[in-house]
Design brief:
This protein has 141 residues and is an all-alpha fold. The protein contains 6 helices and no strands.
């Protein structure tokens, strides 16, 4: 009886992982996020490295998320890792917003076509302020 529950849980987990993975790949493929990111950074020759890094990162991150792993790294070693992670996520978000033309659409909707730079800076400062608030108040260092 217990073996049946374990097999069912494994099946559901595997199916859920396949669904999420397929959705993630479809998202990146349909919106052409990776090619646009390489175009923005002028590293189109390295697109296969980007793709490989994303696949390895998702697989390793998924596996580590299922484990109880503590790397025991110092704060000073974690700072550049966090900075690199933030830069990558920011570039990915910027590529996504550019692909979807988010800023021009928002600026037209709220009537600030001529002040799009201010709109973008408001998003940047809002993100920085929110991140600092989270780190200063919710993260135990």
């Amino acid at each position: 009886m217990m073996t049946g529950k374990i097999i069912f849980a494994a099946f559901v987990g595997f199916a859920g992982g396949l669904a999420v993975g397929a959705g993630f790949v479809a998202f990146l493929t349909v919106l052409k996020v990776i090619p646009r990111l390489t175009q923005l950074t002028k590293t189109s020759k390295m697109i296969h490295h980007y793709e490989f890094a994303i696949v390895v990162g998702v697989v390793v991150g998924g596996w580590l998320g299922l484990q109880n792993v503590s790397l025991g790294l110092t704060k000073f070693l974690l700072m550049p890792i966090g900075l690199a992670d933030g830069i990558f996520n920011g570039m990915l978000a910027a590529a996504l917003t550019e692909v979807l033309n988010v800023f021009p659409i928002i600026s037209k909707r709220i009537g600030v076509d001529d002040k799009i730079v201010y709109l973008m800076m408001a998003f940047v400062f809002g993100k920085v302020t929110g991140s600092l608030f989270q780190w200063l108040y919710y993260v135990d260092l």
